[in-house]
From TrEMBL:
A Gene Ontology biological process term: maturation of 5.8S rRNA
SUPFAM superfamilies, per the entry: Class II aaRS ABD-related
Organism: Mesembrinibis cayennensis
Name recorded for this polypeptide: Ribosome production factor 1
InterPro entries: Brix (IPR007109), IMP4/RPF1 (IPR044281)
Gene encoding the protein: Rpf1
Gene3D superfamilies named in the record: Probable brix-domain ribosomal biogenesis protein
Annotated GO CC locations: nucleolus; preribosome, large subunit precursor
Gene Ontology molecular function: any one: rRNA primary transcript binding
Sequence ranges of Basic and acidic residues compositional bias: 57-66
Domain Brix: 111-294
Keyword Transmembrane carried by entry: no
Major subcellular site: nucleus
Length: 318
């Protein structure tokens, strides 16, 4: 007999929705919400049951099991970009040998960075600049008070600075980053979001050391992405000091550049962990300009136009 006939608790009622069931047809709002939750619960149960069934079938077949299907994601369904860089392309190699970053990659120049802010920065932006200077070796922080960028750039060039980083803020929160390579550009403008200082990161490590970190650039595949990646690489000295075990990562995913700063922790000869040091932030490229910063008469190589460029979710530019 059933559990109820044996005196036990009643068995849970199994909801069977008809194939043509539509939650939107239910007029009562509370009832509609309740039925939607039950329908979602049933969908999860069916999905979990199908997953267990597939796993048992694979275990039964053993080595004869077919290969696992690759899940469809926005990244692996990306629309092909004509400007995707081929490492063996002679034209790309020639451009790299003659562009503005060639002296750095040929080890003729050593990076020297000036980090400044928008006019009269607030506390959070000040702390972020200080932490950013501890990540980038040979960087100096200058807090700007009413001095125009066009006047700062000639002074930077005269003092042998190779790059200028400007952190902009809105309502006391850092929201923009301008990176200008000196003396001849280019200049990139990024929107900044998801800024987390060291004290806001869980399970963070100790303060970073003065060792030169390793730099990792992920998924900068197009010509535009290649140029942006070379800009980031030229901020750090060419020879990392692996004794310090520190690594700075610029990870491009769907045209969002995620920055993370970690330290390797070697637990044994085979196991290694990572410990985040901070800070962390996310960048979105807004424009790439030829030459140094010039908001009025600058010539732009690329400008992000939302209504024209964001029509397809699978189209990426970096």
């Amino acid at each position: 007999g059933s559990a109820a006939e044996d005196g036990g608790p009643p068995a849970p009622e199994r909801v069977l929705f008809p194939p043509t069931f539509s939650v939107s047809e239910i007029k009562n709002k509370q009832r509609r919400h309740f039925m939607f939750l039950r329908w979602k619960q049933q969908q999860r149960k069916e999905k979990l049951a199908a997953k267990k069934k597939r796993r048992k079938e694979r275990e039964a077949l053993g080595d004869k099991a077919p290969p696992k299907a690759i899940p469809k994601t926005i990244e692996n369904q990306r629309v092909y970009d004509e400007t995707t860089v081929d490492p063996n392309d002679e034209e790309v190699a020639f451009d790299e040998a003659t562009d503005e970053f060639a002296p750095y990659f040929n080890r003729q120049t050593v990076p020297k960075i000036l980090i400044t802010t928008s006019d009269r920065p607030r506390g959070r932006t000040v702390r972020f600049c200080e932490q950013l200077s501890s990540v980038i070796p040979n960087s100096h922080v200058y807090y700007r008070r009413g001095l125009a960028l066009k006047r700062i750039i000639p002074q930077c060039i005269a003092r042998d600075f190779t790059d200028l980083i400007v952190i902009n803020e809105d309502r006391k929160i850092p929201n923009g980053l301008v990176l200008s390579h000196l003396p001849d550009g280019p200049t990139a403008h990024f929107r900044m979001s998801s800024v987390r200082l060291r004290k806001e990161i869980k399970r963070k490590g100790k303060e970073p050391t003065e060792h030169v970190p390793e730099v990792i650039l992920n998924n900068f595949t197009t010509r535009l992405g290649h140029s942006v990646g070379r800009m980031f690489a030229s901020l750090f000295p060419h020879d990392p000091q692996f004794i310090g075990r520190q690594v700075a990562t610029f990870h491009n995913q769907r045209d969002y550049i995620f920055f993370r700063f970690h330290r390797y922790i070697f637990k044994s000869e085979k196991k290694v962990g990572i410990q985040e040091l901070g800070p962390r932030f996310t960048l979105k490229l807004r424009s790439l300009q030829k030459g140094t910063f010039d908001s009025k008469f600058g010539e732009y190589e690329w400008i992000h136009k939302r209504r024209e460029m964001d029509t397809n979710r699978r189209k990426f530019h970096l």
